[in-house]
Amino acid sequence: MLNRSIRFFELTGMNWLIPIANLLAGKNPKAQLNQLLASIGAPLVAFLIFLLLWSTAASNIKTSLGNLPGPSQTWEQFESLVDEHTAARDKEAAFYQRQEDRNAKRIEQGKEPKDIRPYTGAPTFFDQIFTSLYTVFIGFAVATIIAIPVGIICGLNSTIYTGLNPLIQIFRPVSPLAWLPIVTMVVSALYTTDDPFFAKSFITSALTVTLCSLWPTLINTTVGVSTIDKDLINVSRVLRLSWMTQIFKVVIPASLPMIFTGLRLSLGVGWMVLIAAEMLAQNPGLGKFVWDEFQNGSSNSLGRILVAVFVIGIIGFLLDRIMLTLQKSVSHDKTQEIR
Amino acid sequence: MANSYLDISGVSIEFPTPNGPFKALDNVNLKIEKGEFISLIGHSGCGKSTVLNIVAGLYNATQGGVILQGKEVLQPGPDRAVVFQNHSLFPWLTCYENVRLAVDKVMKGKPKAERHEWTEYNLELVHMGHAMHKRPDEISGGMKQRVGIARALSMQPKVLLMDEPFGALDALTRAHMQDSLTEIQAELNNTVIMITHDVDEAVLLSDRIVMMTNGPAATIGEILHVDLERPRERLELADDPTYNHYRAEVLKFLHERHAKKDVPQSTKKATTTTSDAADKKEEDKKDVAA
């Protein structure tokens, strides 16, 4: 049990939890405490200094919306967002309850029950987090589906790579803000149905994420495939493996670590791009939340935006940790340190 | 000519480089009988690996060709299994899976149990039965090379090609591996072409030692028949005058008649082993050029 949880912490990069686990198991408490202090002491001190600097700086900056919020005001706003969320959920439950009560009455009176109407209240902050996550995953998934095969082809065939490389290099540094108007117009022109399954703003945001997060995976896959040990390729030639077997048994496993390095970078880029895309496309996610609060301009707005900043940061960090764990689990060389 | 098992006839190869074609081999002729153990020895960069790669079918000769049992070699195949210097095991597969991949390829259509048994048999043959479910990064260099040999043997090749199989190993492990190879050879009597830098290894293992001149346009300089009784015992042979005579012959060829001009004589012995890596690099450059 202890060893298994330690291995899990190592794999997920949460090394600082190891001493706690050891401590709980009662293994050499003094050494564990020292290790714990060394691993979380410094980050804790740094964080406290940061909070101090933040609150002093904030109290000295006057904006048209009042003082820049410090840590405590930001925390208050977080609590109020949580309250609003629970209040909205209660309201939603009550809304459905009312309809059901009414229908029950109608049935009692021998009338046909009416259809239940869906709740149309505004999304809360936490609904918006999930919209953002959903959007980024769709955009990232589409990018992955395009980037990995193209990367493999580029890695295998240097002529194709030479041909595509200038295009890759030109489009890679383009900002999402530049793509967005074009994507918006193209989506409006091409995605015309009366009963859309996806909202246009969602498709626009997801596609912008795709366009920007494509490149790290593509480039890393290409490098991974083109740098496969030549001897391994020779082995597969000696074995006369078929083309498909060679791709799935040799090329992909050999370049998997590099592919995952690319995926990790891509997801990071995608998450960063998403916020900007949502702001402009008005996709109901975190980006729109920030934009709406900015336009709203109440005395609470800056605090709420700061809450969003932290939430965006923490989610980005968690996504990176998940990818790191995957990256470690596919690495051939278990002794290699991946951070 | 028509009757020999493996016939390397009139093989020349040129690699295109930015400064015009580079002739690596010129008119290499060698006939090998079934069950013979041949060593290729020569200075770094003389094209030993190129000869081996042509026999393997990984390169195609510019002129001449290789005929194995009456058929011309045009592409690589499992009947000419190669043991590479750096083991070349797939790092994401266990030892067993590495061998099994080859077994599945050459024993297509045979029942699963039979393939499983054959995989295990070959791993046992190289004394790797105890670690067959470990991954390459969990075992030592010598063990990896054993698995590489097991993989090659499992293909039951007509010719076993070994490109400095023990070059990257330390001296003790190397001696151990040579003994293992002698043992396996006594049992299976394979036809083997082995590249080596090690004079003792060549004399100890080979029926014939093929000595190559220096490149460019390298070719076979001399062929030495090693008439020593088998089984050969390393320790007994150390004092054997015939053995030492053969050894001296090879050394004379390498260090007197075909000494490398750019390397001082006295440091020769030491550089032959350390230059392995440089040799490999040169070979790689040619690959890129090709």
Task: Give the spatial strand order of the biggest sheet of chain A.
Answer: 1-2
Instruction: Output the number of helix runs of chain A.
Output: 12
Rough outline of chain B: globular
Radius of gyration of chain A: 26 Å
For the termini of chain A, the CA-CA separation is 25 Å
Strand order of the largest sheet of chain B: 6-7-8-3-9-10
Tally the structural domains of chain A: 2
Question: What is the straight-line distance between the termini of chain B?
Answer: 31 Å
- State the CATH topology of chain B: Rossmann fold
| Architecture per CATH nomenclature, i.e. the level-2 architecture of the largest domain in chain A | Orthogonal Bundle
Which CATH first-tier class of the largest domain in chain A would you pick? Answer: Mainly Alpha
Structural domain count of chain B: 1
% residues in beta strands of chain B: 15-25%
Assign the structural class of chain A, choosing from mainly alpha, mainly beta, alpha/beta, alpha+beta, or little secondary structure. Answer: mainly alpha
Strand element count of chain B: 10
CATH-assigned homologous superfamily of chain B: P-loop containing nucleotide triphosphate hydrolases
The CATH class designation of chain B is: Alpha Beta
**What is the CATH architecture assignment of chain B?**
3-Layer(aba) Sandwich
**Given the C-alpha coordinates, what overall shape of chain A results?**
globular
Largest interface: A-B, 20 and 23 residues
Structure explained in plain terms:
The complex is a heterodimer of chains A (339) and B (290). Chain A is mostly helical. Chain A folds into two domains: 2-60, no CATH class; 125-330, MetI-like (MetI-like fold), CATH 1.10.3720.10. In chain A, 78% of the residues lie in helices and 1% in strands. Chain A contains twelve helices and two strands, in the order αααββααααααααα. Chain A has helices spanning 2-12, 17-24, 29-59, 71-108, 125-156, 158-171, 176-190, 200-226, 230-238, 243-281, 286-296, 301-330; strands at 62-63, 66-67. The longest helix of chain A is centred in the last third of the chain and has 39 residues, at 243-281. The mean pLDDT of chain A is 88. Chain B has one domain: Rossmann fold (3-Layer(aba) Sandwich). In chain B, 41% of the residues lie in helices and 21% in strands. Chain B contains nine helices and ten strands. In chain B, a hairpin with a 2-residue loop joins β1 and β2 (20-32). In chain B, α2 packs across α3 (112-125), α3 (112-125) crosses α4 and α6 (199-205) packs across α8 (241-257). The A-B interface holds A 229-232, 234-235, 237-241, 249-250, 253-254, 256, 332-335 and B 56, 58, 75-78, 80-82, 84, 86, 88, 90-92, 101-102, 105, 135, 137, 155, 284, 287. Chain B: It is found in: Cell membrane. Chain B: GO terms for molecular function: ATP binding.
